[in-house]
Amino acid sequence: MPPTPQVWQVCESCGHRLADDAPDPQCPDCGGLLAIEQPAPDTSIGSLRERFDARCCMTSPGAMSSGVWRFGEIVHPGADRPVSYPEGNTPLLVRPQVQRFAGCDGLLLKHEGMNPTGSFKDRGMTVGVTQALRLGASAVACASTGNTSASLASYAALAGIPALVFVPAGQIALGKLTQTLAYGARTLLVRGDFDACLALVRESSAKLGIYLLNSINPWRIEGQKTIVFELLQQLRWDPPEWIALPAGNLGNTAAFGKALREARAWGLISRTPRILAVQAAGSAPFASSFRGGFVERHRLKADTVATAIKIGDPASYQRAVSTIRETNGIVADVSDAEILEAKAAIDAAGVGCEPASAASVAGVRQLVRNGTIAPGDRVVAILTGHVLKDPGILQWYHQEAEPPPASANRPVEIDASVSAVERVLASR
Ligand code: F0G
């Protein structure tokens, strides 16, 4: 067997290098975040594109049918026993109704809610939990607004490792809490917000020797890169003009930048798409920093109906700044009303997504309207989570949204009579 090429974990602040099996979640010298430094892949056995395309077959057995492990040599070359559901292979959708809503004929939707636990987090978690198993971790942990915890709970169960999750009490969507409990994670409802949960899990896991699997963990980022690799492959390696995604803790924004950097360096693409990171207006510290030319890092108390991205102090800030700079990207913010309007349009097209996911489409619409995105540009908007994640949003339409989003489909309660049915039909 050929030797595994050397992979390093490198501190992004001070450059300290750690072996790929070091368990530290951050730099032991300065506390900076770690990034995986992949060796250039061996192209003497055929181009990377040809290799990946040859593996693009849903009927392959085991991990090879995964949309993450298909790219294994540029994700985790040292993994010999992937913990895979499998995940990925999510659809790239053309929906004229949503294109019309956004004012963009070239809009495509990449539905990451079609992953096994209903969000893009599975792509990072399959790699993170594989690494946990490789290190012999006794337990794994994360803080979460709900999707990370659901994903960690599932993959930890798959690997047979106990999982501990920290979520803000009363602030995560019902579908996500249901999954986390069902898959068996020890679930702590913390009296505090997500930012408090993240600080607590960082401190607790360091003290208690538990392997931390938030997106500050560099292996999570490696897995999430495959959203970009896969969409490029679906477009036959002809990159779109833009990739739009919702932004919270900024792990995914960081992953997209790394993926594009590597895709360019290793000949998968010859042009870099621009990244559009979209935040909810009440939780938009990154957008504020962007508007100020990234001179100042903003932090705030977050507030938005899109609970998945209700984050005031994003951990992957610095890496996300690199993504925006390197891709000539933009950070936008959209109001809760704009998010819910976009969600209603995506839902009404029969696609569906959770509120935070709709921020990407709301952001595209905003940039088309202000002339930054041309109506004919090819734009891939990432839908990050499934419509069933947040059933509570229906209640929100009832109680809080006055008036509700124009296209929100509200239920109508009636007496059990045909005349009542007739009255409803006549009122449309
Ligand atoms: N969309 C959804 C549905 C999410 O759950 C998240 C993050 C994001 C977008 C933002 O991604 O944090 O990488 O910028 N959810 C995390 C969680 C925080 O705990 O599930 P990000």
Features of the shown structure:
428 residues; alpha/beta; 6-stranded mixed beta sheet; 4-stranded parallel beta sheet; 14 helices; 37% helix; globular; binds ligand F0G
Description of the structure:
By secondary structure, the protein is an alpha/beta fold. It has 14 helices and 13 strands. It has helices at residues 48-54, 96-102, 121-135, 147-159, 174-182, 194-208, 218-234, 251-265, 285-291, 317-326, 336-348, 355-369, 393-399, 418-426, and strands at residues 8-11, 17-19, 34-37, 92-93, 107-111, 140-143, 163-168, 186-190, 211-212, 242-246, 274-280, 330-334, 379-383. A 6-stranded mixed β-sheet has the order 4-5-13-10-11-12, with helices on both faces. Helix 3 (121-135) crosses helix 7 and helix 7 packs across helix 8 (251-265). The chain is globular and about 70 Å long. The chain starts with 7 loop residues before the first strand and ends with a helix. The model has no long low-confidence stretch (mean pLDDT 94). Residues 119, 121, 144-148, 215, 246-253, 308-309, 354, 356-357, 384-385 line the site of ligand F0G. Ligand F0G is lined by residues 119, 121, 144-148, 215, 246-253, 308-309, 354, 356-357, 384-385.
Care to give the gist of this entry?
The chain has 428 residues and is α/β, with parallel strands linked by helices. The protein is built from 14 helices and 13 strands. The strands form three sheets. It has a six-stranded mixed beta sheet with strand order 4-5-13-10-11-12, sandwiched between helices. Strands 8-7-6-9 form a four-stranded parallel beta sheet, sandwiched between helices. Strands 2-1-3 form a three-stranded antiparallel beta sheet.
